[in-house]
Request: fold
Amino acid sequence: MNDKVEPKTLPGFMELNPNDQVKFDQMKETIAKSYERFGFLPLDTPVIEYSEVLLAKAGGETEKQIYRFKKGDTDLSLRFDLTVPLAKYVAANHNELAFPFKRYQIGKVYRGEKAQQGRYREFYQCDIDIIGDGSLSVINDAQIPSIIYNTFKELGFDNFTICINNRKILNGLFSSLNLSEFATDILRIIDKIEKIGVEAVRGELETLGISKDSIETIINFVLIDGNVDEKLSALNELGIENSLYNEGVNELSSVVEYIRLLGVPEGFFNVDLKIARGLDYYTGTVYETFLNDFRKLGSVCSGGRFDNLAEYYTDKKLPGVGISIGLTRLFYQLNQMNAIKATRTSISDVLVIPMSQEDVAESLKVASKLREEKINTDIFFEDAKMKKKMKYADKWNIPFVVIIGEEERKSSLYTLKDMESGEQRKLTIDELVKFIKL
Amino acid sequence: MNDKVEPKTLPGFMELNPNDQVKFDQMKETIAKSYERFGFLPLDTPVIEYSEVLLAKAGGETEKQIYRFKKGDTDLSLRFDLTVPLAKYVAANHNELAFPFKRYQIGKVYRGEKAQQGRYREFYQCDIDIIGDGSLSVINDAQIPSIIYNTFKELGFDNFTICINNRKILNGLFSSLNLSEFATDILRIIDKIEKIGVEAVRGELETLGISKDSIETIINFVLIDGNVDEKLSALNELGIENSLYNEGVNELSSVVEYIRLLGVPEGFFNVDLKIARGLDYYTGTVYETFLNDFRKLGSVCSGGRFDNLAEYYTDKKLPGVGISIGLTRLFYQLNQMNAIKATRTSISDVLVIPMSQEDVAESLKVASKLREEKINTDIFFEDAKMKKKMKYADKWNIPFVVIIGEEERKSSLYTLKDMESGEQRKLTIDELVKFIKL
Reply:
């Protein structure tokens, strides 16, 4: 007889085992704490929104990927990012907020992408955005790299580069070459230079009908090499006469100046003129972040400055700057490479094991005492062989086991076993607490 | 011109302002930490599942309320609780787990209920379950109240009662009265006694065609009064000869004995024979929890023992015991009554305010230093009147403001303002750190 339903999970939906979930949760919490360190306020918008609201701006690929359905007569969609819900929230609650509004949100978003290795249809985004009311100082653009720096340091990484560019510089350059009408296409093509190489970019730019001279100018420009100051000098010395270009260079110089004041060490950030960000809506500073030991992951934290967050909902001008970490994909990739820098590997600090049913009462008392001392404590109550109990501790990475039998009960000296070294020692309850807390 | 989309949120979907979200998040984190204190492992199953999997067991009301839709040819549903996904997970990963499997999950679930005040269509459940492989010791049933006790204490409550009953006792009683065929109906009716009163319960029982004598026996039984020990004595002295009844009384006595060993103080738990839990699947111990100062909220944490978690997916017998806190509704109600015991009311510990653009550099340095000391620090960069900057601190409940102007820059003595008392003092950076950390 087999009338059972197969207990399967949808492809493209991450479902971690508890040991991996512990590591995932630690990363998520680290990111949240880092965002809070810089004063970002939490928001938790619904996963479901009116389709009309969510798709006010969307089009093309986004619409195709969206999870959209009706409940009764209501046309609903699952959020596909956290920016549109933020725009809705700020537009709807403008009068209730104090600006600049700095919010973080960490939550699941949904995109019905073609399922493939490492691509998820449900995934966590970890976003921060700073939204100004009418205007927003460029100093905020400098805060962002300092937040990225702090966040990835806290995540345990010490070899990464935050790459910074400014869309105005590129657009100013295109304008100076009389190529403004091609700006979007050129940005889209340049954005791929790391992936497809210079030759392919040259080829694609040619298909736009741009002159060979201009193409070489653009390619030479985005490949300008050197450290931060050398690049800034080069930008100033090129003699490009264009107000947008100059505005961009000035903004970029300010951002660099403030980044230094914020204490981001040299070597952790750089100017990278290749960075364009495919998405249309960035208008100034743009960011990408690379783990240098895992460069093939691509950017692990990206974002930029935009002129107007919520133009589809309100006439108010709401400029902003923000970034996003795609945590689900990042976790998957790092975990595949054994590159998660988790310091927490288990929930329980200790497993209390009564040898027999007679030892349960004493075990409960010991467990309660340990928990009072803020030690996460599991107990194994079930009737089972000691081997099975040890396997349980092992399976869930519990570092210590406290064994309580007749001898322990009578002497009030409990056997503590270090699961890694195998070492055992007999300790009083107070010694137990001290030892486990170490 | 008005081609704007109205930025509205769906009714029945909670969207808190950041100040409330801080309180909500603190409650959520407190619950998670309490669950971890007892060794429960985290799980984060998808929000979307195959309808076939999610609805294997469902029926009636649940099916009607579910958010169900197609993406391509795939029939999908949003989870309506966290128990069914757990059943799926355990059935699918049985060989990979060590039992008893103790998991917690805190996540949003979806029910398309009629929208009304305090009823949510998207809401957080905070669940723990202990799942045995084939069998599960009754001591686990005693651990649950100790977890409830710890959790609500940590949430800041000190006047609540965990009410415990055992379905076997009631079912044994019904059997001894030859009323087994009516058991489900009687349980359903008794469950409402607090809400509708004794008279109404009597009336409803009469419509089942039960004899007046039996009805009085049942009502007198569930209303047995006294403290824990008095009730247990009464249960033993009633002379009811029924094996299920006796099994239930023995289990309940054991649970009480172990609860005491686990250190739950008298007065925080009691036996309540009225508690039946409407849901069918509980088979032994059942729990409800009442905040005695807010009794009208009903039970804020309920659950019980069940024989078989995943029978729709596997032949394996997986008995379990668990509870759930409906956090969204609980938060809404407590917040309405100003009864949230949040100790955290702001994200930022301090707001740094440069008096003018000349003071920004110094302000960035001070902010970086504070953040290094793990102090959550916001900075107000925008050009604005001091009044507006103070309003910002006020709006987001930031307790301290550090003002940095020319004088402060020159003296390296920074003005700290206590936003509550209005007091100001001039402090060095080290004194600032110490003062804010207090």
